[in-house]
Amino acid sequence: MTRITRDPAHLHYAFSAKIPPVARMSVDETAVFETVDASGGQIPARGDDPPDTGRFLPATGPVYVAGAEPEDAIAIGIEEIRLAPEGHMWVRPGLGFAGRFDRMESVTVTIPPSPADTCLFAGRIPLPLRPMVGTAGVAPAPGVEVSTRYPGTHGGNLDITRLGPGSRLWLQVQVEGALVSLGDVHAAMGDGEVCGTGVEIEAEVTVRFALRRRVRLPMPVLETRDAFFFLGDAPLLEDSPVGPLGWAARLLGASLALGPEQAHMLISAACDVRICQLVNGRMGTALRVPKSLLTLPMDRW
């Protein structure tokens, strides 16, 4: 098992092929990523004092996965998420979708000892415990650098609540070794992350990788037990689902011998568009497609 610690030398704030790997591993190994919270550990120390936003959203890594090549797709399979004893939420000026606040305020959320299925908001309000990874990605093509604040074809700050234990995130490998990084774990978060934060928390994330040779993915794809989620993003919310809808219609048409008109009607009847996040300048959405409808194998996508 490879462990990537949360040593400051292992944290970075952009996905880039220029960042050298901090570990190398084979695709059949298990890796544990130690992540810090989205504030870079500042909220527990500062309370409601204004934090340094330049230290927000660090990712741990990157890890070089031997055998991963740009013609391949790589899956980041989440096997386990071990949470710290407490996490935090906050609002601050300029953050959030609907709320507009003129001061910083934070709340502590306590995590009971495992096993547990709830956490305590402000020490007294029980919430369902839903651990998830907010940021996961590979290095984009050489010459391209993307802040960990944003989503994209490389993955990044996707903030999809279903990226938890038992799921796999499929991404197009864009550089040799993929250069995988993780961060921004939440103990719980609602779709949209409307105030700008979920329950931000330190964690240890156990992952296992998989490769599919010569598979081209135009966008990130999250796989769960019963569905695929095609992930889109755009500056405007109305544009974010466009790419996933077109691609899903083509794949469903090929799977079920449907024309584009019928494929889009099928999507409207059986698939769901969900908002992932609204707060980082690019609106993220997920189109859920049941596996029972998408029978075309991934190597024919």
Task: Tell me what the structure shows.
With 301 residues, the protein is mainly β. It has two domains: 2-221, Acetamidase/Formamidase-like domains (Jelly Rolls, Sandwich), CATH 2.60.120; 226-294, Acetamidase/Formamidase-like domains (Endonuclease I-creI). It has three helices and 22 strands. It has helices at 42-46, 242-256, 260-270; strands at 2-4, 11-12, 14-16, 23-25, 30-35, 59-65, 73-83, 86-91, 105-110, 118-121, 125-128, 132-137, 145-147, 151-152, 155-157, 168-172, 180-186, 203-212, 221-223, 227-234, 272-277, 283-290. The strands form four sheets. The chain has a nine-stranded mixed sheet with strand order 1-5-18-7-16-19-20-22-21. Strands 2, 4, 6, 12, 14, 15 and 17 form a seven-stranded mixed sheet that branches. A four-stranded antiparallel sheet has the order 8-9-10-11, with no helix packed on it. Helix 2 crosses helix 3. The model has no long low-confidence stretch (mean pLDDT 93).
Summarize this structure briefly.
By secondary structure, this protein is mainly beta. It is built from three helices and 22 strands.
Low-confidence stretches: none
Strand residues, percent: 35-45%
Rg, Cα atoms, Å: 19 Å
Q: What is the N-to-C order of secondary-structure elements (H for helix, E for strand)?
A: EEEEEHEEEEEEEEEEEEEEEHHEE
Number of strands: 22
Determine the N-to-C terminus distance: 32 Å
Which structural class best describes the helix and strand composition? mainly beta
The biggest beta sheet, please?
Answer: 9 strands, mixed
CATH architecture of the largest domain: Sandwich
Shape: globular
CATH class of the largest domain: Mainly Beta
| Helicity level | 10-25%
The CATH H-level superfamily of the largest domain is Acetamidase/Formamidase-like domains
Instruction: Quickly count the domains.
Output: 2
**Neighbour order of strands in the largest sheet:** 1-5-18-7-16-19-20-22-21
